[in-house]
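Data availability (excerpt). The following record was deposited with the supplementary files.
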Amino acid sequence: MALPFRKDLEKYKDLDEDELLGNLSETELKQLETVLDDLDPENALLPAGFRQKNQTSKSATGPFDREHLLSYLEKEALEHKDREDYVPYTGEKKGKIFIPKQKPVQTFTEEKVSLDPELEEALTSASDTELCDLAAILGMHNLITNTQFCNMMGSSNGVDQEHFSDVVKGEKILPVFDEPPNPTNVEESLKRIKENDAYLVEVNLNNIKNIPIPTLKDFAKALETNTHVKYFSLAATRSNDPVATAFAEMLKVNKTLKSLNVESNFITGVGILALIDALRDNETLAELKIDNQRQQLGTAVELEMAKMLEENTNILKFGYQFTQQGPRTRAANAITKNNDLVRKRRVEGDHQAAPGAGDGRGIYSCRKQGGMESEVTLASKFRPGCIIYRDVSEGKKSHF
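Predicted structure:
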């Protein structure tokens, strides 16, 4: 059984909607559009013009010009007259003028202390040392200052000749002058390196800021063929990665340089890695200083440093402050191992250079006692560890 309203709806199924809209007038279409508009007046995300229906049918007066509107508002504000004061200002002062109360100044008068004639005579004739002892006994340490006490104790006879004064004079501060500039002649040093001067062993270019980068590269190029310079330092010379790369190429060829210092420069991890990689082919450099660069090198570069030190047995001094614990420990162990190897080689060389090492006999010392010359000889024909003393003057031998 169909509902009554469904029977009413069935008669509208066959209606033509396009025909109905076509028969509506313009006014009826606008009214229909207004009814069908779904606007939300509470939506804060929409502009004000889209939250409500259009209330007017007026056309726009013109395009919006913000500068023109501001100038118009400013002009209107200047032309508008200010409202006159209802109560004019007459300049009349009302009330009382504040006068601060003056507090009475308290004056302190020192009373004159009178001592016994004997006590006053004793204090007048007392020396400065006795006065210091008296102040210490009474606990009145404010009678003298540390400066006065040190001056008294530091005098020639232990007692200052002048009396102590209550006024402590300030000591004059000695000026601290800046260090003189580096006197090294850059051009002359470069020329002597190129000429392979035998008297030029150490080159110090530290703190010379105005050396051009091409000149520093020329130093590296000249050191490739130099056979006399053993110590080269260019700390705080504003060197960068190209300079470090040039010195890395020099280290691959040079067989004389023992110490290189490039601290306090602008070298990054790229330049440091180039120097580290060059040390794999260098067997003469014993000291390298690369600390205090402008940019931190990072963990990867520090790991490469530690790996190089473990592979290179010639580096005895490595100037760099590691930031990571792992590379720091590995580098310290490698440097210790390299120094131990040098010590062992030196000890073995001393043993091989000792006379009589091949036949089992070695003279350990030769001394003179009371005009008698003696030799301490370890002989293998006697008991092991036997020492023979031979008196050269009398031709006698004794052993134990």
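Summary of structural features: Residues 357-400 have pLDDT under 50 and may be disordered.
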